[in-house]
Specification:
two-stranded antiparallel sheet, alpha+beta, elongated, 3 helices
C-alpha cells in the first residue's frame, strides 16, 4: 500500500509541475539588497497531521476514491492586509510575507485575481533560500488572472514582490 501511495504521490507531483506558471531566471531582490528589514510578517495556517491524512486516504482509496494531493485553505491575503513593504533608497519597493503550515510537506499558493505589472517581479522561496521559484512576471499570469507557482518543499515559504519605482501607480 505504501509503495502504491508513494508512486501515486510522485506521479501527482510530476503532473502538478505541468500546471506551474512560466518563470524566468532571476534572484529575489531581498537576497542581494542591504537595508531591508529582517522582520517578515508570518501567517500561520492550520497545522498538518500527515498520518491522519494518510489513514483517511487509505480508507477512502479502498472505496475507489482518489488520493488527495494536498489540503486547501481559502485565504484573502493581499498586499494591503498582510505582509510588509520595504522602500529602497531609490524608491523601489519590496513586499514580503511568510506563510507557514506546521508539518506540511510543501506549501503552495493558487491565486486568482492576480496581476503582476510589467517591470515587477514575484519570487517564492524557502526561508533558508534553499528552494526558489521564479522570477515570475506579467507573462506568468494566465489571462483570467490565475497564478499557480510551483510548490516550495517544507512547511514555510516566503512570497516576495518587487516593484520598481517606475511601476508605481500602475
Amino acid at each position: 500500500m505504501r509503495k502504491i501511495l508513494l508512486i501515486s504521490c510522485l506521479i501527482l507531483c510530476g503532473i502538478s509541475s505541468v500546471w506551474a506558471q512560466l518563470c524566468f531566471p532571476g534572484t529575489p531582490k531581498s537576497f542581494k539588497t542591504e537595508g531591508l528589514s529582517l522582520y517578515i510578517p508570518s501567517i500561520e495556517m492550520p497545522s498538518v497531521d500527515n498520518q491522519k491524512l494518510l489513514n483517511e486516504d487509505a480508507l477512502l482509496s479502498d472505496k475507489g476514491n482518489p488520493l488527495r494531493v494536498g489540503v486547501n485553505h481559502n485565504v484573502t491575503l493581499n498586499m494591503n492586509n498582510s505582509g510588509r513593504w520595504d522602500i529602497l533608497p531609490n524608491g523601489d519597493r519590496v513586499w514580503r510575507l511568510s506563510v507557514k503550515s506546521e508539518g506540511a510537506a510543501s506549501v503552495h499558493f493558487n491565486m486568482n485575481q492576480f496581476k503582476i505589472p510589467a517591470g515587477a517581479e514575484v519570487f517564492i522561496y524557502s526561508p533558508d533560500h534553499q528552494y526558489v521559484a521564479g522570477l515570475y512576471d506579467q507573462r506568468s499570469v494566465l489571462p483570467n488572472g490565475e497564478f499557480f507557482p510551483q510548490d516550495i518543499p517544507g512547511d514555510e515559504m516566503i512570497l516576495e514582490y518587487y516593484q520598481p519605482v517606475s511601476v508605481l501607480g500602475t
